[in-house]
Amino acid sequence: MNLDLRIPMGLMFTLVGLILTVYGFSTQGSEIYQKSMGINANLDWGIVLLIFGFTMFLLGRRGQREALRKPQKPAPEGTIRRGH
Amino acid sequence: MLLYFVFVLGIGFALKRYMKTSKDFFQAGRALPAWICGLAFISANLGAQEVIGMGASGAKYGIATSHFYWIGAIPAMIFVGIFMMPFYYGSKARSVPEFLRLRFDEKTRALNACSFAVMTVFSSGISMYAMARLIQTLHVFDYIFLSAGLPLGYIFHFSILLSAIIVLGYIFLGGLTSAIYNEVLQFFLIIAGFLPLVLIGLKNVGGWSGLKASLPSPAYLHSWQGMEHANTNPLGVEWFGLAMGLGFVLSFGYWCTDFLVIQTAMATDTQENARRVPLIAAIPKMFFPFLVILPGLLAIAATTPKAVTTTKVEANGAIVRNTSFPSEAELKGQGLVPAKTNPLTGKIMLDASGKPLLDYDLAIPSMLLHYFPTGILGLGLTALLASFMSGMAGNVTAFNTVWTYDLYQSYIKKGASDRHYLAMGRWATVGGILLSMATAYAATGFNNIMDTLQLVFSFVNAPLFATFLLGMFWKRATGNGAFIGLISGTTAAIIHHGLTLPIEAHPGLHGGWIAIVHHYPSDMAQNFWTAIWAFSTNFVVTIIVSLFGKPKPESELVGLVHSLTPKPELGHLPWWRRPEALAIVLLVMVVGLNIIFR
Fold it and tell me: Do B463 and B155 contact (CB within 8 A), yes or no?
């Protein structure tokens, strides 16, 4: 496939994670965390998502590069290729 | 949330340049990796009914709800991967109805294609309606509307329009690839949104042991207790009805024949990968109960909100005292599950014995609102919306494929250029979404339309699996047999429904509209037994009619029937990479889970 899904997905989660982390960091100790029983859910989960997103992004980049280096795989038997 | 919408449409645009042929559009060029399709396979099924409904059942029945996963999905997913995928993928059929044409005949396919097309449109409309209602109930957009000076009554229309435009946007541009990519995205988003909810919720009630202690009854944590008899367990079903009705007929009928999920497996590059797709999908599916059922349990176990008074000393020395009162519905509910209110009068609805009815559907949404602070709350709500959209998108792509290949190309305009069909597919997407919107609005007008539709679907779907089973494993089965069998199976379902009634229900939509010959302990039991009757009738009738007819010559059935198809060549793979090995691991795991939570 021409677009490795892990790249846009990684980007999205990195961004979401970043927003949550920054927001969580700036609202440390705020009373909005009474709801989540004193846990700074934004900061903690933001970091988790940040790591997840960035890993996905790196894996996707690597996969994409490898796919480009390798010549196109021959079509497996039994598939009809039309168009192209 | 905005970010998510931007990315969703961005993927559509990025993929647009690759959509050159109808094959790219409808079948994703048959070139996607197995793990992506595997996640899309479950995500397509992860619609509104799934997340909200399973959370609701979790709050209502407890861990027993996991039967829908461990009995009602995993075995069927293993079966479709190991036994049925070679025929779907190998037969070069482009859709499930097309497989029926190759195996049986034109009329069986037309019957299946028409009923399927109608069902997909209606289900996506139901998703749309449920989503708009939920947005309204949770007041997600209230702030935006108030600050823009718009009346709040427009929120419903706005939500429907918004979801329609987004789903239309990415499917119109990127076809099945885009739908699959977005389904995977939604899959991760749902996990990202719900996992912290489970973690915080568990911490709140004091971990697993705390959960055990605060549940209204210990039976909530057992899935097999009291299964010997229908009256001794919360589901009201005995083990035979459960295993046969849910575990065999209903789940195999869904996972093995519904093009909505099969299409994602058919988008992979090789047959081995197509077989692996349902098996890969089974792994996360097995653990989904912890993500969607557990929040329901936690909602019941949590303490019911009470009036909270907070005292705060402000910078200027003034002491401010704030008291927040929960609404009447919240007070009358159990745990975090609010009582059901009548949407017209706003009064709390009571059951026959005067106790307030609980609105279980709000179990997960009210958990989100209760535990999540601003910030992550946006993520949680987006995850909830994503779950609705992934269900809609799967229905819409299945609809445009079946409409274009099985109805338009076969009966309306044959032999047009590939370009023409590609354009048709795009416009079918638009048409499908418009019809869904019409359904969503119809649902606002008629209170019972959703229940009625789901009932009709169950009549049509229940017998389906018998046709495929006989078609794939018995070469004598004929087209006439399949066609008459399908119709009589559906008829049997209707008659059975008309003759039986769950206890505590009034004759009518719940059954018993012909005469009442039998009472079931619950509507779930009735539903399972309707399926069992429909399946058996179809099975028997197809065999009888087939024996009187002339079967297709064997040469035409190669690749379509088990005994006439060469075994898939797997010699080049080490044993642990074969789909069968994965299947056995999965079986062991699912049995293990059942034993742990017996």
Answer: no
